[in-house]
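## Example pair
The file below holds two records. Each record gives the amino-acid sequence first, followed by its structure token line.
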Amino acid sequence: MRPSLFSDENPVAQLVLTIITCLSCLFLSVSLGSLLSYLFYHVPPADLQSELENAQNVPLQKFFQLVQGVGFFMIPPLILGKVFSGSSTGYLKLNNVPSVGRFSLVFLIVLFAIPVVNLIAGLNSMIRLPQSMSDIQNYIDQTSKTYQTITESFMKVNTLQGLASNLLIVAIIPALGEEFLFRGVLQRIFSNWTRNVHWGILISSFVFSAIHMEFYGFFPRWILGIMFGYFLIWSGSLWLPILAHFLNNAIAVITYYLISNGLIKENMADIGSTTDFLPFTIICCLFTGAGIYLLYKKKNSF
């Protein structure tokens, strides 16, 4: 029997259809988000972009991010999984639920990796473009400041309801949607295209980081994407990278909540990002590496 046009044997056709599907869903989700923003928040479509960049209009930002998270990241992979294999859950490797041992090990890996990721982010923030590219550097700096301002206003909540809302929008939806798309779909496509699973992980993780359009967070996000990619390969289940992604984002949400309520110091959000924490970060790096090695070695025995 000849393989269908969109089978794994034809990754180029799969990639083209993935791009078309994602762009179509992005257009529909933005259109729906604009309409609902007008109905519920009385924001005209012409003013939507400026209001989304307004650090004071947090409810609109959260609402729009929720709509886009579902419309752009979650729905396309489910459609593509059905088209490519006839089963969304099967294609996305959601049928295989890992053992408690694997979940526990991934939890510890993510926990110990936080200072390491923060250190990489700190080093990333020190990168400067040549003087000849000063206009691009200024744009990056300004965009980064705007992003930081919006993030702080977005994450700063003082109630349990606000915490639950942030966990949904920042942790649960991205963990599901982004893992569906980047690990579940794109990693598989690029692995088949290059005929090398390692290249598939590197390329899909690069796209994963680049699409966030945050220069000073590019390298830590790329490394996290690579780690999530290997979690999928070693377990045969998308639930492990989903858990890791959720934990990474949820810890950040909870940390901001604790800081906002004065329960921990503000510098706890950046633990490991400076040389002041270097000995602690090195220890965490060793534990992270040991956990990853153990997960790799035991990949067939959990």
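Second record, same layout:
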Amino acid sequence: MSAGLIECVPNVSEGRRREVISRMAESIAATSGVRLLNHSSDAAHNRSVFTFVGTAAGVQQAVLGLFERAVADIDLRGHEGVHPRLGAVDVVPFIPLTGATMDECVAIAKTTGASIAERFGVPVYLYEEASNNPIRKRLEDIRRGAFEGLKEKMSLPAWTPDFGPKHPHPSVGATVVGARQILIAYNVNLDSDRLDIAKAIARTVRQSSGGLPFVKAMGVRLDKDVVQVSMNLTNYERTPMWVAYDAVVREAERHGVKVRGSELIGLLPQAALRPGDETYLRLEGFTSSQILERQLD
């Protein structure tokens, strides 16, 4: 096992029931060799994000404990939320930090994925660096069709899972496990009820549509008066938050819409934040505890 520090950031399809979220957080925090750094939940997305670090053995054990809670507490057959999801524990990325390598995270992803399938009967897809399948590298490709379309998708030979049964788990679906570099989950909220505008802006700014490099984006509705451009910045050095923010502001102005503010989900490296960015980006609810290095001190 690696002696380095590994980060894990599972995204779970539950953002409303506080008691369920608390049980999952407590399970992670109680795992030997792991520190739970942050967890946040969003009711509109109906999704929670947990960030923890630890040894290879520790993070693997924490993920399995999280699955045990999720299988007991989450049933996607009654789940609703604006964020697309494939499973109760939707995605589990391993990220190398101090003293750890990407190869070690790939190995951890594979052993953890195999254990999830064996212990819980949940199909597992590998993604990003852990996948050798070119059509199953990107999370959005694997998740396309969501939980509701999973049975049909899994009937296709190209979508046989890497581990586990060839059909969805009836209540928790499937999960995606992989290894990647640090990304920043960053959202910009628009002062509008026009979901079509949020989706149009997302298409313009995301890399897959010819927009900004290393940006994934989608438009979602938060409530009746607010829509959101929800983004993942997969290389914050090449496309920083402020560049993504400026692009969304420009496109919003072009559509006659104002930006209400922006938000960071989870943690980010200190280097990703310029002096004054908290004000410039109109970051809502941001605290210094969301800077990764401060949590690792």
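Notes on the second record: The mean pLDDT is 96. DSSP finds nine helices and eleven strands in the chain.
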